[in-house]
Amino acid sequence: MDAAIDETRRRWPLASAAFDALLDRTPFASIEEGLVEESLVYSQLQGGPEFQAWRAATPVTQRIPDAEPVATTRSENTLHITLNRPDVRNALNVAVRDAWLDALAVAHADPLLEVVVTGNGPSFCAGGDLDEFGTFPSPGEAHAIRIRTSIGAAIARIADRVTFRLHGACYGSGIELPAFAHRVIAAADTRIALPEIGIGLIPGAGGTVSITNRIGVDRMRLLTLSRQVIDAETALAWGLIDEIEIG
Question: All domains of the chain, ordered by start, with CATH?
Answer without folding.
Answer: 2-58+67-245 (3.90.226.10)
